[in-house]
């Protein structure tokens, strides 16, 4: 059975394509994906872990034109980051136009061996041991990157009086251009737009990594006894002459594997939204991290 894709919508526009959010990155908090345990030490992917890359160019869509009532991942992201409501209060009709020059979708299926090598990095091991083997760990397996993004929204209000535009772009750090026509007429039209020429990551897919506390290194294949914790020098008569206590061997990390499906809203106890994958047109899930 093919598992439905689940994309986690990032909380802002602050993650460039060459930044910390990359395939193979190991994180412990999905809401803070920029804090990677293996940043700068991403293991190169072998031949059995190919990356699927697809690109969509010069795309333009309208929320209003979606006959199914569901919109794409990109439209969902913009709507959420902009405050959940592009436009003004009290509108009678509306249309949101979403454009981008290029959208790149990346995905790879990590093998057990690849995850094991990624976990076996000093910084990752140190963090897991320091947090008493209690922290969840996730690997980034999919990304959506958009370049040349544009959003335009138009609201037609069916009543008189002034109104204040409710677009949340400024709060989200967006380069917003506002052009409201608010004059108290019955046919008032409010128009707003923003444009972001540089690329950024706006959605990701995660797989949870399962691990447990393992036996101390070197003790798995032999019986444990207290003498193993000491450095003992034996004299010619067979009596110990120098005993120096050493530290107890540190436990290892036993990798159990990873989840077979994307991390979803039910795993994080967060809101999940049905959407359409802009790349394939297939139905998918979106989880709002904002």
Provide a compact summary of the structure.
With 290 residues, the chain is mainly beta. The chain is built from four helices and 14 strands.
Describe the protein.
The chain is mainly β and 290 residues long. It has helices spanning 73-81, 112-119, 122-130, 265-268, and strands at residues 6-9, 26-27, 51-62, 91-108, 137-147, 149-157, 176-181, 189-196, 200-216, 230-234, 240-245, 251-258, 272-276, 283-288. The strands form two sheets. Strands 1, 2, 3, 4, 5, 6, 7, 8, 9, 12, 13 and 14 form a twelve-stranded mixed sheet that branches. A two-stranded antiparallel sheet has the order 10-11. The longest helix has 9 residues, at 73-81. It is elongated and about 65 Å long. The two termini are 31 Å apart. The relative contact order is 0.23.
Key phrases:
290 residues, mainly beta, twelve-stranded mixed β-sheet, two-stranded antiparallel sheet, 14 strands, 40% strand, elongated
Low-confidence stretches: 84-93, 159-187, 218-235, 241-246
Shape: elongated
Determine the fraction of residues in helical runs and give it as a percent range. 10-25%
Q: What's the end-to-end separation, in Å?
A: 31 Å
Strand content: 35-45%
Computed Rg: 26 Å
Order of helices and strands: EEEHEHHEEEEEEEEHEE
| Secondary-structure class | mainly beta
Counting DSSP E segments of at least 2 residues, the number of strands comes to 14
Average pLDDT works out at 75
* Count of helical stretches: 4
**Sheet having the most strands:** 12 strands, mixed
């Amino acid at each position: 059975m093919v598992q439905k894709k689940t994309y986690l919508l990032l909380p802002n526009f602050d993650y460039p394509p060459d930044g910390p959010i990359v395939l193979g990155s190991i994180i412990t908090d999905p809401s803070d994906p920029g804090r990677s345990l293996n940043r700068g030490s991403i293991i190169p992917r072998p031949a059995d872990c190919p990356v699927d890359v697809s690109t969509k160019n010069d795309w333009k869509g309208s929320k209003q034109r979606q006959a199914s009532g569901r919109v794409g991942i990109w439209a969902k992201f913009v709507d959420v980051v902009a405050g959940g409501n592009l436009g003004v209060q009290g509108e009678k009709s509306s249309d949101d136009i979403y454009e981008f020059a290029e959208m790149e979708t990346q995905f790879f299926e990590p093998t057990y061996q690849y995850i094991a090598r990624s976990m076996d990095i000093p910084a990752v091991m140190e963090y897991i041991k320091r947090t008493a083997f209690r922290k969840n760990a996730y690997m980034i397996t999919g990304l959506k990157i958009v370049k040349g993004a544009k959003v335009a929204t138009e609201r037609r209000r069916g009543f008189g009086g002034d109104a204040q535009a409710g677009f949340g772009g400024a709060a989200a750090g967006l380069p917003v251009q506002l052009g409201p026509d608010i004059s108290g007429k019955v046919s008032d039209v409010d128009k707003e737009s923003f444009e972001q020429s540089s690329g950024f990551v706006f959605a990701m897919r995660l797989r949870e990594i399962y691990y447990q506390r393992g036996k101390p290194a070197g003790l798995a294949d032999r019986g444990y006894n207290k003498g193993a914790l000491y450095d003992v020098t034996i004299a010619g008569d067979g009596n110990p002459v120098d005993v120096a206590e050493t530290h107890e061997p540190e436990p290892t990390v036993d990798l159990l594997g990873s989840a077979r499906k994307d991390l979803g809203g039910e795993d994080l106890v967060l809101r999940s939204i049905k959407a359409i994958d802009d790349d394939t047109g297939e139905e998918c899930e979106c989880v709002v991290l904002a």
